[in-house]
Description:
By secondary structure, the protein is an alpha+beta fold. It is about 20% helix and about 55% strand. An eight-stranded antiparallel β-barrel has the order 1-3-4-5-6-7-8-9.
Amino acid sequence: MRTELHRCLLTFATLFVLTATAAAQGSEKTKVDVTGSWALEVQTDAGGTTTPSVTLKQDGEKLTGHYSSATLGEADVTGTVKGTSVTFAFNASVQGTSLAVTYTGTLENNNSMKGKISLGGLGDGTFTGKKK
């Protein structure tokens, strides 16, 4: 009876270790990496559409990079990646007024994201992004 119990416990422990190992390997395969150049399409609540680009570099959960658009100009960005949630922000100058711009989105995969943009007090909008 005791030997039978030990075998059951050993079998259970082995299955637990194998399951935990497989889960850990599976999560490594789905690691998020947003490093690269992104083409964005932004639609504002006011009805305008713009096509800025952003180059991102991911280091763990930290994001840095550079934003470029005809509307808001050039700016360095900072942000975070947590799971599939991505946030990056920068300050732009519009007609001499500083404007805090924040993108908050969700990664659909390593090559696609979508979400919302906040243009400080000037309004909001939505965006989609595709890795170039």
